[in-house]
Amino acid sequence: HRLKKYYPITGGLLGRTIGHVKAVDDVSFSIQKGETFGLVGESGSGKSTTGRTILRLLEKTEGEVRFQGIDVHALNRQELRALRPRMQYIFQDPYSSLNPRVRIGEALGEALLDHGLLPQAEVRERVLEVMALCGLATYHVDRYPHEFSGGQRQRIGIARAIMMNPDFIVADEPVSALDVSIQAQIINLFAELQEQRKLTYLFISHDLSVVEHLCTRIGVMYLGSLLELAPRDELFLEPLHPYTKALLSSVPLPIPKKKRERIVLQGDMPSPANPPTGCKFHTRCPYVKDICRQEVPAFREVSTDRFVACHLV
Ligand code: SF4
Ligand code: MG
Fold it and tell me: Secretion signal: which residues (predicted)?
C-alpha cells in the first residue's frame, strides 16, 4: 500500500544527496490468496524493485506491505527470518545465485537446514521428492550447476523455492532468458505447482504474452508507477491506458473478436532519475493534452477492480 522505494543520487565534493531515483513511486495493489498477479512493463519500470521490496529483500522508503496480515517491514531480524520460508523469490537467472562448486542436491537442501525446517537425515529424501516434482531427474542430484541447461536451471530455481514450502512466490522474469519452447514448459510447471500447493504468485515480466496464460489480474508499470490494473481478460480485450494499448499492439490477439487500436511506442523511456512532470507517460503518448504535462493523473477505480491513471479515461 502506497509503497515507495527511492534511491538517493549523490553529487558534489561532499557527496550530498542531490535528488532521488523514484524506482517505486507510490504503488498500491493487493494480491488474493491463490491468484497469480502479473506485473508488466519495460525494463527499468520498477517491477523487480517492487517485488523485492514486497519481500523485504530491499528496505522500503515509505508505505506498507502486509503479508497474511503481517506488516513485513515492521518485523525485527528474527521475526523476518522466521517468515522467510513462506515467501520466496525466484530470479531470472538462478545460475547466478548458485555456487558453481556446490552439488545441486546440497544447494537445494541448504536453506532447509539453515532454517532448521527438517532434520539432516530427512533432507536428501525431501530434495529428491521436490526435484521430481519440478521435473528434474533425481539421478542428477549430485551434479554441479554448469551441467544443467537453462531450462533445467530454472527448474532448480523453482525447486529451491518450493523446498521451503512457501505460500507466496515472487517470480522475477523467470522465463525471459529461455527459448520460447522451454518457456511454455516452465510456465506449465508454475501452473501445476500452483494447483498442487495452493500457491500465490507475483509474476514479473516485460512480456505480456508470457503473463497472459498464467495471470488472473495484471498491473502495468511505467517509471515506478502503476498506470493500469485490471483482470486479465479485460486488460487484453479492452485496455484503457494508452501505454497498455501500446504494449498490447505488439501482442497478437488469440481470437480477434474485437479490433484493437494500435499504438506504436515512440522514443525511449525517460530516465527514472528525471521523470517527466504530470503524467510520466506524456512524452510518448499520442493523446497528450496540456493538462497531462502539468497534473499527475490519479490512479483511480473506473469500474469494479479496474484502475487506471489517465486524464482521458
Ligand atoms: Fe496520455 Fe495524458 Fe493519459 Fe498520460 S494522462 S496517458 S499523457 S492522455
Ligand atoms: Mg527486473
Answer: none
Q: What is the pTM of this model?
A: 0.94
pLDDT tens for each residue of 60-108: 999 999 999 999 999 999 999 999 999 999 998 877 878 999 999 999 9
Q: Is the CB of 246 under 6 A from ligand 1?
A: no
The answer to whether the CB of 285 is under 6 A from ligand 1 is: yes
Provide the ipTM. Answer: 0.98
CATH number of the domain at 3-308, please? 3.40.50.300
Does an H or E element contain 20, and which?
A: strand 16-27
How would you classify the pairing of strands 306-308 and 3-11?
unpaired
- 176 vs 9: CA distance, rounded Å: 30
Q: How far apart are CA 270 and CA 149, in angstroms?
A: 36
Q: Which atom of ligand 1 sits closest to the CA of residue 287?
A: 8
Residues 72, 60 contacting (CB under 8 angstroms): no
Nearest partner of 3 among 30, 29, 26, judged by Cα: 26
What are the residue boundaries of the structural domains of the chain, listed by start? 3-308
